[in-house]
Design goal:
Structural class: alpha+beta
Strand order of the largest sheet: 1-2-3
Order of helices and strands: HHHEEEH
Radius of gyration: 17 Å
Shape: flat
Number of helices: 4
Distance between the termini: 46 Å
Number of strands: 3
Largest sheet: 3 strands, antiparallel
């Protein structure tokens, strides 16, 4: 690309948008790793993200004013799903009642040898956040 500054600004705006749209967090984070060496494939992915956002205006975080106050955590993992590093992507979401209050999606620091090891690491991360 000749002028990457507009792409960088757009990625910055998408990063800001992930505060209320956690469903695009992983893709935007992955794109932000390529702001120095952009290709046309990256531009196409950004266009797809923008089309998705335009087509789903009601999707986002809903903070309920009327719900029972109970703490709930959900954990998930995708074993060796990163095609570049073969690392596992883990994630969790924390709720108070029906309202999402905290979430995280991250590649694990090490390559895991089994799905049991991955599940243990993901649950340990989730329990730490709950505490």
């Amino acid at each position: 690309m000749e002028d990457a500054s507009s792409f960088r600004r757009l990625i910055g705006r998408l990063i800001y948008l992930t505060n209320t749209r956690p469903n695009i967090t992983y893709v935007v984070q992955h794109l932000s790793q390529f702001v120095v060496a952009l290709t046309s494939a990256h531009q196409q992915v950004v266009v797809q993200i923008l089309k998705y956002i335009k087509g789903s205006p009601g999707v986002g975080i809903f903070l309920s004013a009327v719900s029972k106050i109970h703490l709930k955590g959900i954990s998930d993992f995708d074993w060796a799903s990163c095609i570049d590093t073969k690392r596992t992507i883990t994630g969790y979401a924390m709720y108070i009642g029906d309202s999402l209050i905290s979430w995280k999606s991250k590649k694990q620091a090490t390559v895991s040898r089994s799905s049991s090891e991955v599940e243990y690491r993901a649950l340990a991360c989730t329990i730490c956040e709950l505490q």
